[in-house]
Amino acid sequence: MTLDEIKALVRTVPDFPKPGILFRDVTTLVGHGPGFSAAVDLMAERVKASGADVIAGVEARGFIFGAAIAARLDLGFVSIRKPGKLPVPVIAIDYALEYGTDTLEVDPEAVGEGHKVILVDDLLATGGTALAAIELLRRAGATVEHTLFAIDLPDLGGGDRLRSAGITVHALLDYPGH
């Protein structure tokens, strides 16, 4: 499948979660077997090129893409979770949202010292969640220099924020505007 064919599988939902927003919904891509497989293949190529030996995914849709890519490449997968989901002692980070804060957690034993990790998620908007996840992984001992997203919304500035922090940004698809 071409990138245009994959992009056509992403549903656009107007006015969600608020008026004026065009929500890019990967549910329809993930639900299309050949399209999802093609997306995973293309993303896996970018992971290989990054030299990562572990993939980390952010809850929840980062799990879908990250775990599929990890399985395709025979790499380990690390879950970056929302609070209270892991049954072991965790390390956590609070980060700012547009209205308030949120927290991410990881099992510090899930990442070995010096592992080269690529962070995978479905969507890059402002970059706040990705920067928090990267900091969390680094606290656990990982080296994180690359990120990979199914979709980038470049006008929201997340890619620029990550690049300013010395992180290489890869995205399968991009959508100008929001």
Automatic annotation (TrEMBL):
GO biological process terms held by the UniProt record: adenine salvage; AMP salvage; purine ribonucleoside salvage
Catalytic activity from the UniProt record: AMP + diphosphate = 5-phospho-alpha-D-ribose 1-diphosphate + adenine
UniProt keyword Secreted, yes or no: no
rRNA processing in keyword set: no
GO cellular component, one term: cytoplasm
Biochemical pathway: Purine metabolism; AMP biosynthesis via salvage pathway; AMP from adenine: step 1/1
One family name in Pfam for this protein: Pribosyltran
Annotated localization: Cytoplasm
Phosphoribosyltransferase domain ranges (all copies): 41-144
This enzyme's EC code(s): 2.4.2.7
Biological role stated in the UniProt entry: Catalyzes a salvage reaction resulting in the formation of AMP, that is energically less costly than de novo synthesis.
HAMAP family documented for this protein: Aden_phosphoribosyltr
NCBIfam families registered for this protein in UniProt: apt (TIGR01090), PRK02304.1-3 (NF002634), PRK02304.1-5 (NF002636)
PANTHER family: ADENINE PHOSPHORIBOSYLTRANSFERASE (PTHR32315:SF3)
Protein name per UniProt: Adenine phosphoribosyltransferase
The organism's taxonomic lineage, starting at the top: Bacteria, Pseudomonadati, Pseudomonadota, Alphaproteobacteria, Sphingomonadales
Encoding gene per record: apt
